[in-house]
Specification:
The protein is mostly beta strands. The longest helix is centred in the first third of the chain and has 38 residues.
């Protein structure tokens, strides 16, 4: 072969080798970079437990609703729900679900079904995985070995302008026996099963009084704010192991089980709170202007007391009930016309899902996210949201209060001086218990 051809051939061969080496190098660099990128994903998914709330109390046989917010820089693939004892041993069967997305809100249920459980503190864990990393959130829960049971009911009456009486019936529901007599008028009451305290508040003269449900002795008390010269308190409810109270001085105060103020919300200047609902980290509040008829629904952050938003409402609110995380049913009266509005947090707007019959609402309660019971002057009504249906559930006039027991599916109705107990499934009357005075409030009493 001529020398020139040999040189050209070797040169071409060398160039091909160089290109091959370069291509292999590029490929190797790309694979290396890909592997390197894969290895660099060390970001752990974020998990925030929305429900249940801190220190929730559960009983053998309960079903626990879990709601959580998940977030990751990549793609979430799986979420797992578990409950462990103090030794890290699983207390109930773990459940999991496949998911897809970078930001998700997830829901699931755990059934507390383990006959070997002992009463004590447990840890709820929600764990989210993106395939490479796992993020976790934890929440303490209290589980009782026995099933939740209705131990009885308290009925509250006002036989005199400055007298409030407590009556108590056990789970046989045969007789209401006198339990305590309190000095002062009456505005509202709530029974916190976590602390086993029945807390009553007066309107003008009545104090805040916490009564132990077992011994019937006073646990703690606070005097009325203005000593009867002005209204003091309007509404009380409980959240976890605390109670919160709407006061005429413009405050919502949260009291722990020892009666110590553990948090405050100051409402908008010139307004005072009349009704409030605490859900997770927020208060949904009806506020009324001191010097005029104006009212509004306002949302406050519970931890800081800061105002989130507010919108007008045109009637006196008697109850604010949870529908879901965004929606709340607001019941009340425009003079003698019963009203029901839906308030939506995300839009800060209201609308009227149903026109209610003429007459006043005294109380409304939530059965579940679809069913609500209204204690109306004319009847006990059932409202079903999914089909937007209002029906007469019990044809009974003169109703003042209602309460619902989900363990036995019983509906308690305060009708004049009678405590009437109905089967919620079919509306049939089970029992009537007579009381010496007209009943103003019903408080169901459960085991702790």
């Amino acid at each position: 072969m001529p020398l020139t051809l040999v040189f050209k051939f070797n040169k071409i061969l060398a160039l091909k080798q160089i290109k091959l080496v370069f291509a292999v190098a590029i490929c190797g660099f790309t694979i290396s970079s890909f592997i390197s990128c894969k290895k660099e994903d060390k970001q752990i998914p974020e998990v925030k437990i929305i429900k249940p709330y801190r220190d929730i109390e559960l009983y053998q046989g309960d079903t626990l609703l879990i709601e959580a917010d998940l977030k990751d820089n990549k793609q979430l693939k799986r979420v797992r729900y578990s409950i462990f004892d103090e030794n890290g041993v699983s207390a109930v069967p773990t459940t999991s679900q496949d998911i897809s997305g970078k930001e998700l809100k997830v829901f699931n249920f755990l059934v507390i079904d383990n006959p070997t459980l002992t009463t004590g503190d447990y840890t709820l864990q929600v764990a989210a995985s993106d395939g490479a990393n796992e993020g976790k959130a934890f929440l303490r829960v209290k589980i009782y070995a026995s099933a939740r049971k209705l131990k009885g009911v308290f009925a509250i009456t006002t036989p005199g302008a400055q007298t409030t009486k407590l009556y108590k019936a056990d789970s046989t529901f045969t007789t209401l026996l006198p339990a305590a007599t309190l000095t002062g008028d009456f505005a509202d009451a709530t029974l916190n099963p976590g602390t086993q305290q029945l807390v009553t508040i007066g309107y003008n003269t009545g104090k805040i009084i916490s009564t132990d449900t077992r011994s019937l002795n006073e646990k703690w008390s606070h005097p009325s704010i203005y000593g009867g010269s002005l209204p003091s308190f309007f509404h009380i409810n409980y959240f976890e192991r605390e109670v919160y109270i709407c006061s005429y001085d413009g405050y919502i105060r949260t009291y722990n089980e020892s009666g110590t103020v553990n948090g405050t919300v100051i409402v908008n200047s010139g307004f005072y709170p009349r009704k409030a609902l605490r859900i997770s980290d927020k208060f949904i509040i009806e506020e009324k202007l001191f010097s005029g008829p104006s009212r509004q629904i306002a949302v406050y952050y519970a931890a800081s007391g800061a105002l989130m938003q507010n919108t007008p409402v045109t009637f006196d609110v008697c109850d604010i009930l949870y529908k879901d995380n965004d929606r709340y049913l607001v019941f009340g009266n425009d003079n003698t016309q019963a009203k029901m509005w839906m308030y939506e947090v995300n839009s800060n707007g209201t609308w009227e899902p149903k026109t209610l019959p003429s007459g006043k609402i005294n109380r409304a309660i939530r059965i579940n996210s679809n069913e609500f019971i209204i204690a109306h002057d004319n009847a006990i009504y059932k409202y079903e949201y999914n089909i937007n249906s209002l029906t007469t559930f019990i044809a009974l006039s003169g109703n003042y209060d209602v309460a619902y027991d989900e363990t036995k599916r019983l509906l308690f109705v305060a009708n004049g001086n009678q405590l009437r107990i109905y089967n919620y499934q079919n509306g049939s009357l089970n029992t009537v218990i007579n009381c010496p005075e007209n009943i103003k409030r019903i408080c169901l009493w459960y085991n702790n």
